[in-house]
Amino acid sequence: MIRFLLNQTLREESSISPNMTVLNYLREHIAKTGTKEGCGSGDCGACTVVLGEVVDGILSYRSVNACLTFVSALHGKQLITVEDLRDKKALHPVQQAMVEHHGSQCGFCTPGFIMSMFALTKNKPNADKEETYEALAGNLCRCTGYRPIVEAALSLSQSQPIRDQFAELEKETIARLSNISPPELEHQFDGKSAFTPQNSDELADVLLAHPNAKLLAGGTDLALEVTQFYRDIDELIYVGQVNDIKVVKETDTHIEIGANVPLTDVYSALTPHYPDFGTLIQRFASLQIRNQGTVGGNIANASPIGDAPPLLIALGASITLRRGDTVRDILLEDFFKGYKVTALQPSEFIHTIRIPKPQTNQTFKAYKISKRFDDDISAVCGAFHLTFGNDADSDVVTGVRIAFGGMAATPARATNSEQALLGKPLSINSIHAAMTALEQDFAPITDFRASKEYRLETASNLLYRMYAERRVASHADSAKSGNAIATRVIHHVS
After folding, report:
1. Each residue's pLDDT tens digit, 9-45
2. Residue 57: DSSP 8-state
3. What was the pLDDT predicted at 474?
4. How buried is 198 (Cβ within 10 angstroms: 0-12 exposed, 13-18 middle, 19+ buried)?
5. How is residue 443 annotated by DSSP?
6. Residue 402 vs residues 140, 229, 333, 336, 417: alpha-carbon distances, Å
7. How much of the chain is in helix, strand and coil states, percent to nearest 5?
């Protein structure tokens, strides 16, 4: 039995295929057709809905793509669609703003924009332009252009959240969601099975009993098997209820991220320590995808162009793997064995990602190159983690880890390039040697995202960019202390 609130109505579903998406459930099962079907792959945002979930006693709202969300992920949550926003005969303030600013033309994309804007007003009621752009980056419109839509969203920005019917019923909604009992471990329908373990012990047991089952976390990649390739998934293990691998912990030396932590929360955990990591996560697909997709899923997918693995490899991250009662730790760089091939054994799953905390004598830079700035896949992703001598003014590289995505069949380190820098001052000569050494590290391929020549030259240029940015930053620090020569160098570099 899958139990959730559809707006304020309790739904209990037992005759639903584990392969049914929320989009198809809404449109075909209960005839709520306001949510539109566009690309079916999480790119256009026409199917955007909002999920409410009780987190630490607070009702949290997040926008998600209904086309990539299986109904099993709704258990214990509140599903809000565009039809639910109207309060009796009055339009919701978000809907009214879209009307007043002429943000809708053909109307096909409008419900998705409305729901993204609704979530924005709940999470960031005083959103500025950049936050508004981020919230709407996963929604496409081909009629009005984005100016009137952005203006509609900005018109809603205020110091306090909008007092709508959802705010009025918030305490009641929290109580009702909190009273929904955990789901049964197994749900079967039409020859297919879905398992919903409540903790990592149950997950380990179920996976041992069903080693061929597919693990479902955010489903932002796995759901494409159903929506794009029309394949049935006979056995699913939904890990969304496994909260003990949905936490972030900090020790004196490491940041420990559960494999089930959504990318939106990974951003919050890593940005204070590694700002470049946070900046890159903000360009990871769309907000709807980041609200669902998990860091563990991004790793386990083993894509050569996944955004997180190159950065994690450069930082020297390790992962904890579990099979039954057996636990082992390996460096993330040893996890990838070949194209879409990993070190995971049958019935084994990723439990935790451990990332060393930064030291005062270290520099970490990361860059993503893609055809679009937002909501796009990398052509090349580069990450650079350098350690310098203990002397505050030392420029000698005493440790270096360089990793790239998009350059090989797996995310991989550039070991020859690293050796060109190790033990030498970071200078124009050493950086040119490291750029040249990249040709020994990688032999990239040509595909529709980029040619092999472009990839190699771009990766080389990212090395130089890292060097130039560090040089400019060090000169800026010198200029602040009154060093006029350093100031002149900055002007020259700029």
Report:
1. 999 998 999 999 999 999 999 999 999 999 999 999 9
2. T
3. 74
4. middle
5. -
6. 35, 36, 11, 16, 8
7. 35, 25, 40
Query: Which residue type sits at 475?
Result: H
Residue 379 · residue 369 · CB < 8 Å: yes
Tell me the C-alpha distance between 32 and 23, whole Å. Answer: 9
d(C-alpha 48, C-alpha 67), whole Å: 8
Its sign, for the CA torsion 129, 131, 137, 141, is negative
Spatial CB neighbours of 172, under 8 Å, sequence gap ≥ 6: none
What global pTM score does this model have?
A: 0.92
Helix (H) or strand (E) holding 417: helix 415-421
Distance separating alpha carbons of residues 40 and 95, to the nearest angstrom: 24
Distance CA(205)–CA(210), nearest Å, equals: 9
Q: For residues 202 and 197, give the distance between their C-alpha atoms in angstroms, rounded to a whole number.
A: 5
Rounded-to-10 torsion of CA 334, 337, 340, 343:
-60
State in Å, rounded, how far the first CA of the chain is from the last one: 62
Burial of 178 (0-12, 13-18, 19+ CB in 10 A): exposed
The string of DSSP codes covering 312-353 is: HHHTT-EEEEEETTEEEEEEGGGTEEETTEESPPTT-EEEEE
| 8-state DSSP, 424 | S
What is the number of other CB atoms lying within 10 angstroms of the CB of residue 14?
11
> Do 349 and 208 contact (CB within 8 A), yes or no?
no
Strand ranges of the sheet holding 214-216, from the earlier edge strand across to the other edge: 186-189, 192-195, 235-238, 214-216
Task: Find out whether 71 and 22 touch, Cβ atoms under 8 Å.
Answer: yes
Q: Are 470 and 426 in contact (CB under 8 A)?
A: yes
CB 330 within 8 A of CB 242: no
Token look-up 């089952």 returns: 213
Strand partners, 381: 368, 405
Tokens at 281, concatenated:
């996560």
- Provide the pLDDT confidence category of residue 483 given band limits of 50, 70 and 90: very low
Retrieve residue 317's tokens: 């991250």
